[in-house]
Amino acid sequence: MTQFSDWRLGHSDMGLLGFCTLRLLKKKDSYRNSGIVSLTYLDIQKPYSFLDYIKGGTQIHCSFAIDFTASNGNPTSSHSLHFLSSVPNSYEIAIQSVGNIIKDYDSDQSFPVLGFGAYIPPHGAVSQEFFVNLAQDDPYCKGIEGVLTAYRNCLRQVKLSGPSHFAPVINHVAKFAMAYRDGTNYFILLLMTDGYISDMRKTKQAVVSASVLPMSIIIVGVGPAYFGSMKELDSDETLLKAPDGSRAARDIVQFVTLRDFMTPGEDYHMAMAKLAKEVLAEIPSQFLSYMRFNKIVPPPGAGNTLPAELPLDPEFL
């Protein structure tokens, strides 16, 4: 008869990340000396939550990047993804749904907003990285309403063009993340696009390079296009590989398609709520993966003087 003997290290009062089990198997009385198993290393860590770091003072910074390429359609046409009316267009829905959740974690409520793929004033040159408020040296917009106002004003002053380059806006945010690798700040880029990536090789390289930084990228696909390249960047199964052969240190991209949440006849507020839940689903795990990978823990006793009321934990949206 097969016999089992188990030794297990499990969940303690302090909390452990994982457990290990030693199982000894004996099939016959004549069987001797199966070998020796030695425990050479044991790492016990308290499993901190996303909100533990927020209480500890970690600041969340959200940047927006908007696709102004001509494939979105003429903004004056009701068929355009950028058409402005009394009902929010696809880009406005994406900005509001994610922005109204993430703003509660951003202490100063100011958001950098970048655009790409348009002829911009005053010289009419095509830019793959411009400030949507069209300021020369300050990309920040105050509050989500400020983001929406800058977006609408920008549509009236730029001319949609192309191609569609993602790498410049990813690298723009990565430069800031590179300066804050100690866990005190974490950066989220919300990138909204209608489809094709013209600089896929450079985008892959930018994502892989950013994977070691305190940064996540949310890509929202708007419109009816095929988004195969976006799904390739959202490498849930296998870590993304860059053209130079390097692999991402962790998965930092979350891709969702807006049309999956737009039910015909349904109020757009419901679509916004469902989209917000989906796009923020992976942020806590991506955030925590950076902290664990770099062995960063919240300061002892931090947050004890903070108000009792905190934003909702995205893990429980």
List the helices and strands and how they pair.
Elements: E1 3-9, E2 20-26, H1 50-55, E3 59-67, H2 90-102, E4 110-116, E5 118-120, E6 125-127, E7 130-131, E8 140-142, H3 143-155, E9 159-160, H4 167-178, E10 185-193, H5 200-210, E11 215-221, H6 228-233, E12 253-257, H7 268-279, H8 283-293
Parallel strand pairs: 3-4, 3-10, 10-11, 11-12
Antiparallel strand pairs: 1-2, 4-7, 4-8, 5-6, 5-9
Radius of gyration: 24 Å
Relevant CATH superfamily: von Willebrand factor, type A domain
Q: Tell me the β content.
A: 15-25%
Total number of helices: 8
User: What is the total domain count?
Assistant: 1
The count of β-strands is: 12
Reported for the largest beta sheet, the result is: 7 strands, mixed
**Given this structure, which CATH class is correct?**
Alpha Beta
Order of helix and strand elements from N to C terminus: EEHEHEEEEEHEHEHEHEHH
CATH topology: Rossmann fold
The dominant shape is elongated
Proportion in helices: 25-40%
Structural class: alpha/beta
Low confidence ranges: 1-19, 303-317
N- to C-terminal distance: 50 Å
Q: What does the average pLDDT come to?
A: 84
CATH architecture: 3-Layer(aba) Sandwich
